[in-house]
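can u pls check wat happens w/ zinc ion
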Amino acid sequence: MLGLVQTSLGVSAEWLRDNCRCAECRDAVSGQKLFDLADSPAIAEIAESAAEVTVVFADGHRSVFDRAWLAAPAPLGHRDESSKDLWTRTDVVSASWLAYLDDDAERLRCLDSVLRNGFVLLRGVPTRPGAVLEVAETFGFVRETNYGRLFDVHVVDSPNNLAFTSKPITPHTDNPYRDPVPTLQLLHCLENAAAGGETTLVDGFAVAARLRAEDPEAFAVLTQTPVTFSFADATTFLSAFRPIIDVDPAGRIREVRINNRSMQPGREHGPEFYRAYRAFRALLTESQAAFRLEPGDCLLFDNTRILHARTGFETSGSRHLQGCYADIDALASSAAVLRRTPVAELAAMFTGPGAAAYLGEPVTQAQHMLLAGAAALHAQAPDHLVAAALLHDIGHLVADEQHHDTAGARFLARWFPPAVTEPVRLHVAAKRYLCATEPGYFESLSQASVRTLGFQGGPMSEVEAAEFAAGPYAEDAVTVRRWDEAAKDPEATVPGFSLFAPLLERLVRP
Ligand code: OGA
Ligand code: ZN
Ligand code: ZN
């Protein structure tokens, strides 16, 4: 019965059905699901081998899963406390804006600091008005609010917000009266010549975790009692009704929302609430990181976790910050893209779309390519030919079946030199060449390979064959083709992708 069958890996049949990667179940380009589990029939049979788990469903659909893929840990969310490095008093993590712009590794370090520590300080951002928007655009999109695409933090007449005075501002998160709240804030210092006006940051998650340990009752009150936060001026009336500490269904801290200026407890908020609020506030003031923003400094921080504050300042000197908001999930996406390496991406293709059946062959696409790579290794071929053999059919996993040779070569050219991509581009031509020039070769082809030969153009003519043979990569393409043909044995031992990872790393263009 669907849902009751457990594999030795402890995952349900429904989960397996939901995770089938074959060409019928997932779009080849986007990887998106083409079916809905709710419409799927019951399971008929499960077969397990050392490398794979095969599931057959009542409608005859077969799903083949790589054990290594099944055993890989599921990706975790990036918002809750479990993916963070909590801190009490920290050194300010800073980086140079130019290095951030020029060097992907440095950019990733900065974005990771926002995700893990909750903030980063970029130094040397030009003190040009509007530059804060350019900073946000390096990793995501600006979130426009009632304050505009950006806002100026300086002293103005009749301010609609105390931020626009010289008064001190206690630790807070911004826009708590927004739901959804802006998750990321940027503050860029253009001028800071006033006495005072120091900045402090507090890790709201670390302090909330401390409250949970030291005063669990107060923690419970703050997580279970929603409060109204509101903001009004001539053109705006915003209000949100959320708890000060928001936890996810597993009880993990996920958002802190606190701002004395706009919090409006209702009549129902009695002494218990205020006791808890005071307790949290007291701990918050104990663990502040204090520093001074200098012109050119741009602070990026998680507005659902880090509280920021400033001391009051003298109006005899001028102080001018510009700020804007953005989305932390977009920042996390940029970091994830920077974290992608060619080899990791290829590995994911082998275990994801590669698990699909290889039309008419008794092995999957991934098994077929791994066996071709293994044959090349066995022949002690040079690295570039092992890679070409391993990746020769990658085009099946990226695009349209009929031109998988050119599609594959084009895909691989992002990372690999022609010594790898050319034999891939020519591996179908090599089959047509061998059929024309080598007696007995055609007879050795598998049924599926004979079928595809038809729409691939059939055996080459004499002229075509001579032209092909004169090309610089013809010999390599023919060599790869022989491994390709030999890599369809369902009884052969299939190596893991990781066997090839170091070799691929060596070949990737710097
Ligand atoms: C703000 C704010 C801090 C500062 O505008 O939200 O907190 O240093 N400003 O002026
Ligand atoms: Zn603020
Ligand atoms: Zn092949």
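Residues 3 and 14 are 5 Å apart (CA to CA).
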